[in-house]
């Protein structure tokens, strides 16, 4: 009897071990296949994203977007995106896409592997949901900053080198990240602004700029002579080869802008390239002052001038 039991056990044990070994082998093979597919998929997607962002950074239109190239060209014909900004946008977009694809692939891979191991996913999913809610409450500001940063970069609201007004801080942009925007004001102070806290943006460096000079003259001044002098100063600046690349149109003397008890305000305006409006305004003031001095035109108050959006604040150096 004992010999029969031992014989039966000896026959059953190898069969059980064989079945378990076969099951483990099949499960291991499936897990290896899942990992290989995940790695290959991630590699191919990242490679495609990298190529797409490189072509975007170089200014080429990807094949998938070529049917829309004419429409985009018409809508952006007056907007030139410098290569540095284009590269920055492409890098940021590529980083977001790579992170997104990695998270999706990792999540799917983990779920498939746990399923092959026979682990019940319901408690894990429930726990992950609770943890996700807790993290969402704790990191909502961080998520808000990242989402706002993605929107700022995709919409090209501003880029490195732009002169902007962000409300509490204004100055020249030195760096744009997914969470933080760094800018330096006219006093040299570096400001770090969270993207989620940016409610409005005033960009003085997109498209073109407008120089508007309000020149006060005394009531006794010959207004026609003063207007002509201002027009001559503006025309001379436009014709000057040293300033031709900074001016986008003819200077225009608009005439009397305002009459006060102490002076008559005459206005001159000219369209310029972005970030050059302050230099052009300074040169125009100098030329108008010299021309007025030659003609003996009296100015009761200092000549005042404003670039776009300026309200008497100091202009960037240059």
Task: Explain the overall architecture.
The longest helix is centred in the N-terminal third of the chain and has 57 residues. The chain has three domains: 118 residues; 47 residues, SH3 type barrels (Roll), CATH 2.30.30.60; 98 residues, Alpha-Beta Plaits (2-Layer Sandwich), CATH 3.30.70. A hairpin with a 4-residue loop joins strand 1 and strand 2. The strands form two sheets. It has a five-stranded antiparallel beta sheet. Strands 7-8-6-9 form a four-stranded antiparallel beta sheet, with helices on one face. Helix 1 runs antiparallel to helix 3 and helix 6 packs across helix 7. The radius of gyration is 34 Å and the shape is elongated. 53% of the residues lie in helices and 16% in strands. It has 318 residues and is α+β, with helices and mostly antiparallel strands. About 8% of the residues have low confidence.
Describe this protein with a few key phrases:
318 residues, alpha+beta, SH3 type barrels, Alpha-Beta Plaits, 3 domains, five-stranded antiparallel β-sheet, four-stranded antiparallel β-sheet, 7 helices, 9 strands
SSE layout:
Elements: H1 2-58, H2 69-75, H3 83-116, H4 121-138, H5 140-154, E1 163-165, E2 170-176, E3 180-184, E4 190-194, E5 202-203, E6 209-217, H6 223-239, E7 252-259, E8 264-272, H7 277-295, E9 304-306
Helix pairs in contact: 1-3, 6-7
Shape from CA axes? elongated
Radius of gyration (Å) = 34 Å
**If strands are numbered along the chain, what order do they take across the biggest sheet?**
4-3-2-1-5
The N- and C-terminal alpha carbons lie at a distance of 106 Å
Total count of helical runs of at least 4 residues: 7
Structural class: alpha+beta
Order of helices and strands: HHHHHEEEEEEHEEHE
Biggest sheet descriptor: 5 strands, antiparallel
Write down the overall mean pLDDT: 76
How many β strands by DSSP? 9
pLDDT below 50 for ≥5 consecutive residues: which ranges?
Answer: 64-81, 308-314
Q: What fraction of residues sit in β-strands?
A: 15-25%
Total individual domains: 3
